[in-house]
Amino acid sequence: MPSHHHKKNRDPHRSKHSHRHHVTPKQQDRTASTSEETRGVDDDDNSSLSVEREDTSSLSGNGSEVGSVESRDQGDGASAIEPSLDSAAVKWVGPVRAPLLSIKTEINIPLVLLTVVAMATRMWRLEYPNSVVFDEMHFGRFASMYIRRTFFFDVHPPLGKLIIAFGAYLGDFSGNFTWERIGADYPSAVPVWYLRLFPALFGSLLVPLTYQTTVELGYNHWTATLAGGMVLFENSLVTQSRFLLIDSFLLFFILATLLCLLKFWRLKHSPFSPSWWAWLAGTGAMLACACSVKYVGVFTVLLVGGMIFHELWTLIGDKRLTVHDLTSHFLARAGLLAVLPVLLYLLLFNLHLELANRSGPHDEMMTSAFQATLEGGLSRITKSQPVSIAYGSQITLRHTHGMFLGRPCWLHSHLSTYPVRYHDNRGSSAQQQVTCYSFKDINNWWIVKDPRRTTLYVDDPPKLIHHGDIIQLVHGTSSRALNSHNVAAPVSPYSQEVTCYIDYNISLPAQNLWRVELVDSADEGDTWKSIQSHIRLVHVNTTAALKVSGLQLPDWGFHQLEVVSDRLIQQDATVWNVEEHKYTQVDQADVVGNNEETFNQATYEDTMDDQPLMGFLGKFAELQWKMLSTNKELQQEHKYSSSPAEWPLMERGVAYWLHPRTNAQIHFMGNPLVWWSGVVGILGYVALLGVFLVRRRRACFDMDDESWQRYILTGELVLGGWVLHYVPFFLMERTLFLHHYLPALVFKILLLAVMVENIHTHVLRWPVHRHVFSALCAVWVTCIYFTYRKFAPLTYGNSDLSADEVTDLKWLESWDLLIQVL
């Protein structure tokens, strides 16, 4: 943006009273440079000056004006009126009362047009296709579960799904649709328009947000219109906005974060004003929302955090600020950019857990303590069971943290034995198999026995088990004790075999003593409790802990999960908890050989009804840990998965939907011209930055300080945003798709647009070169629009394409467009 200079007064009759002129802040704003510093100052001074005529003949040639005015170019087509006060005496007349109600109307025609067209492109025939498209299968199912208040598990935070569920609520959705497969037709009872409404609305708002963000970066309205237009006619953004997907929410909150941050910086000369606080709080709130849709929002947190750190470092070097001022600046940013987002993030998870508070199909993903808080599930079984484990207790032991083959598992045994020889010709003990079984079964029940006694019943009062006590575990149906010894495990030979001991009258004595160690407890007085206590069972003879290896046994083990004992005790795989629990009081002779139906319930006082349930923070911590750990495990191969190296040039798309009888299809892919031009924009910015730095080093200044600072800010915020939202995906081992590139794409579009202005303003010096460049840009923008139109059939899926038409759209061999044999 060009700088402006005050014009020198050339009037030979300059008033002798000019040295007494007092100029209000408002008048200073009109005559000062339109630099970033001045533009950030709030003007709330309502006082005024009265200009009185002293000698009209000395003011102007015709004496018709009291104060002449000068119009100066603003660089973007606007002009500011600049009073010339050199020939006028200025007198203070006191404050002027502002009107009680004033309305100022300004219409930004390009912004309005972009927004209207964005709404049209995103919401046109929103109900089509009237069938499940790609990941609508997942997010639609989650909306159904919210409506039925059923607990579910997903790797993404809840905000995006909550917004979709709100649309379902507005459409009176009953939640009874099953969302079984992609392509399934929606029945009339499913309010498809309402379900897709909010993704389309947020996707439409990306266009004006892009426009405003470009303006706040300091670029002109033509550049902002270009940036908004590229987002408007970007096919991938249109596609992702028209269905039950959450990426449009993520992109909206990322851009809203940038806009709030830039608005906040514009007020740097009015710190702690109401507007300053509002935009700072808005930045923190939008950060929280971005992180609450997808964890990609964390990259936005890193971007904003780095920029704020740089800003604070600059403030520290400002000698005009006292220590008190610096402390206030730091605390304000810490409170609204750290504490506020965390509180909002917790609040949204609390809302999620309050709405989804009933037992559902995903309960088993969570620990027993978590499940006990859900209505109608495990709590029905455990609500009246005793809490404290005693000698003689019947228990089922669940592996606490493991999810194997998508399910939890319970310590299990059956009458089958290990083979005498394994496939690698190693010998075994041929003892009874012990496994971890992924279904509830009578063979999951065990009896806690006191090694010093032969009886298996619970005393009255019960003899409770504490941290560090030694026990034996007797299998309920086979009456054989849990055992381990220094024999290699069947599938994990580096660990020890775990069995139920059979006395073969050979020199292989029983080693069936186990020490109970409560996790996170060193107090010998702590009691072992059902559901609440997480424990490790440490084999006394070998000091190895009972563990699930996560590997499946062969056919002879019925493909159940291998249980071993491992000398590496401190690991999640060795943690267990009691889920179901009963007290029994029978003679030992009655127990052996009988199943659990013969057991009688003993009397006890403490039940689960009297115990506090897991609180919100405990549930939040567990859910957060599960989400992060499960996200890392999403490594399944997919036909349309892609690597980050393929994204910038859009080498692969993703098939979203195919009509069952024609070649009409929705294929997730972008506008090739936008994607490929964006790569040129990134390379161009870096190249120009290098050239400018070298030339400035040699005292050749191609732009004024304000334009240089804007160019550097663009690199830090926009190029830095692209890097932070793209490069980390190279470090991820999970399955990735092209739509993971969309946050980086938005930054790439912003950078491309501002590079056009920088080249036009600071690289091309001759008017003829600028005219030619402008003409080429007009052709390029026209091509972007027609490219959008060409690929619109793949964006909307509303055209019955022939095989030749599909082939014509396949610009790259790597694009897997679908062609049916009709």
Automatic annotation (TrEMBL):
It is an enzyme of class 2 (transferase). InterPro entries: ArnT-like_N, MIR_dom_sf, MIR_motif, PMT-like, PMT_4TMC. GO terms for cellular component: endoplasmic reticulum membrane. The keyword Acetylation does not apply. The keyword Transmembrane helix applies. It is a multi-pass membrane protein. Belongs to the glycosyltransferase 39 family. Pathway: Protein modification; protein glycosylation. Residues 57-69 have a biased composition (Low complexity). The chain crosses the membrane at residues 151-171, 191-211, 243-264, 276-309, 330-349, 673-693, 713-731, 737-756, 768-788. Keywords: Endoplasmic reticulum, Glycosyltransferase, Membrane, Repeat, Transferase, Transmembrane, Transmembrane helix. GO terms for molecular function: dolichyl-phosphate-mannose-protein mannosyltransferase activity. Its main location: endoplasmic reticulum. Residues 1-80 are annotated as: Disordered. Pfam families: MIR, PMT, PMT_4TMC. This is Protein O-mannosyl-transferase 1.
